[in-house]
Amino acid sequence: AHPLKSSRTRAPRQPTPPAVGAMSDPDPKLVSDAMEAFVDEDYDEARKLYTTLIEQSPEHVAAHVHRSAVNLKLDRFEDALSDAMKALSLDHENPKAYLRKGMALYELERYDPARAAFTIGQTLDPKHAAFKTWIARCEERILEERLADAKQREGPDATIKDATRAPRYKHQWYQSGSHVTIEIMAKGVPEHASFVDVQEDRVTVTVKHADDDPLGNIPYVLDVPLFGKVVPEESRGQVLATKLEIKMMKAEAITWDDLGAEARRNAEATRPNNVSDEGMQRPSYPSSKAANLKKQTDWDKLESDLKKEEKEEDLEGDAALNRMFKGIYENADEDTRRAMNKSFQESNGTVLSTSWKDIGKERTECKPPDCMVEKKYES
Fold first, then answer.
1. What is the reported pTM?
2. Whole-angstrom Cα distance, residue 223 to residue 328?
3. Nearest to 356 by CA among 369, 343, 375, 370
């Protein structure tokens, strides 16, 4: 799972110019700035800074590994592969370099060498769960390619026969305001044979099968880039008798149109762009928190929502009576407000009149309830 992203704001950076000759040690400030840009998802800026870092310290392995990650984010897969290969030429036992190499090869649809890279990386760092996930993804794609080849060579019957060797479970999903739940209809799956990897923008479910399984030992993989982001730390998967259930907390309380990211990309592509005229939009005023999150808070909407909630709140007794008087006062004209203030103050809270014509003529007398007696105190 990805770490939580930093929400701090950044001032524009000026890359440090390369020194004459290669630096033996990287510039700590440049390393920090480049990583900060990557965490803040400013990938173009991060790529520029890592390039400057590599120009200064061409043998700095981490810089090549990190620029490979940046290039993956920018869909520059050939460049990502080149950076990973350079890192491995400097350190042939770097597991992160093998991870980046495998990811670049996977995106280039070179699944066999990608699986080989992930397998080597897993031997170097067995505790890194990402290798297991990516190996399963490669095996799934390799199987699809083999089935396609079989269909081309031997006809559709051979494909159907081979396809039955890889079980395909049905899955469904549903959501609430705060969570998204995926159910995979797989009966009797042992816990040790299932693996769930929840990242902030992707979920991968892998089910392994025994070598003597009558349907074959090809793993089942459900790999879904998600419509919205989730909180991996607050998400969980569990194995039930008839299904696998993955419950993920939404990072934003929004309604998902679909489970996959493709639906969101399509929605963004078809969104009308005729609201860019500033004169057509209500102003929204930034708060410090909103600025840190690179968003803005619409204070007018927030105030309206709070008033609506207050109005719809179900109150009883004195609270309901006070809200009624408050509503009368807020919607009254100036004379009515003067009458209410004068009558309430002069009568010690026993009279509340809205008629300035009557109240303005003379002092309002105290009129206690029948069960009470007015008592005056001398100071």
1. 0.42
2. 58
3. 343
